[in-house]
Amino acid sequence: MKNFLSNLKGVIHFIFIIIELTIGFSTITIANLPRPFVSQKLKISLARMSNHISDWTILGFKVIMNFFHNNKMEVIYEDTFDRNDWCLGLANHQSWADILLILSASNYMMPNIRFFMKKELSWIPFIYLANKNLNMPFVNRHTKKQIIKNPDLRLQDYENTIKSCKRLKRAPSTIFSYAEGTRFTQEKHKEQNSSYKNLLEPKIGGLATALSALPESKYLIDFTLVYKTDQRSAWAFLKGDMADVKILVKKFKIPESLKNKSYLDDNEYRIEFKNWIEDIWSQKDKSIESLKF
Asked: How far apart are CA 179 and CA 281, in angstroms?
């Protein structure tokens, strides 16, 4: 009986999320229908209006999630944030659920989060609409093997990312990337022989390229997520098995020396950016230890 009620809870939770997504994205899509035909000034106004609708949609998610999870999410803000700033964002990555938790923790607290999204996922309606109406950039991620075979792909990836990120100049945003590039598992950690106890090695290319496109960015906002359970599936989240979670949110001032540089061409810049992120990653590794249940 207990298992039946748990599964029923998951189904109802999923239905509520789909309804909230449908209402939110339908509203944003209708609001943006005139965008191809209006001036740049009006496009900026539409971007800001889309941000407001996005805020309301995420607030709806937050209410739904807190109801089904008995309000067990604990968010620790170490800093204050200005929603009129442009920022970079990163987090450790463990589960599909991370996205909803990060959006909930950021809601009305900081500039709207815009995720890098794999272009291979553009067939999913909600992801496609997020790209078109919320300026969430699609990126093509080619493997090292593909780039070695065709070096021009590296320049293509870089230029596509720069072009996508520049659309975010229309309204203050936090351009967000999972620095590990994949979800953390003990198997991946062992395979990498990671320098960190609780993290995979950070990949800096996406964030560094975003900063090249948006030198207006003032801060890097760092989210550290720690779950009580070892379960990581979407179904475990929907059933409430992952309800106990702590999220530490900090910000770091972006050094001026890292701005207005080309990640593709400037090796010194790549090294400096890498050292900066690795220092933040070391602090995050220690924070995870202190946050564990």
From this structure: 9
The number of domains in the chain is: 1
Q: Does 255 map to a domain?
A: yes
Question: What's the token pair of residue 113?
Answer: 């989060």
DSSP states of 75-127 as a string? EEESS---TTS-EEEEE----TTHHHHHHHHHTTTSSEEEE-EEGGGTTSHHH
Torsion of CA 263, 269, 270, 275, to 10 degrees: -140
What are the start-end ranges of the H helices in the chain? 2-31, 40-68, 98-106, 125-134, 144-149, 152-166, 186-192, 205-213, 234-239, 267-291
Q: What's the CATH number where 90 sits?
A: 3.40.1130
Q: Identify the domain containing residue 101 by its residue range.
A: 72-291
Q: Which DSSP helix (H) or strand (E) runs through 249? A: strand 245-253
Strand 87-91 and strand 219-227: the pairing is: parallel
52-71 pLDDT, tens digit per residue, is 999 999 999 999 999 999 99
3-state SS, residue 205: helix
CB 79 within 8 A of CB 249: yes
Give the integer Cα–Cα distance in Å for 199 and 285: 7
Is 270 inside a domain boundary? yes
Strand order in the sheet with 245-253: 73-77, 245-253, 219-227, 87-91, 173-178, 112-115
3-state secondary structure of 174: strand
Residue 78 CB contacts under 8 Å (≥ 6 apart), including other chains: 248, 249, 250, 251
Contact yes or no for 250/79 (Cβ under 8 A) = yes
pLDDT digits 0-9 by tens, 98-150: 999 999 999 999 999 988 777 776 777 767 767 767 767 666 666 667 777 77
Kindly list the distances between the CA atom of residue 250 and the CA atoms of 37, 129, 173, in Å, as whole numbers in the listed order.
40, 30, 16
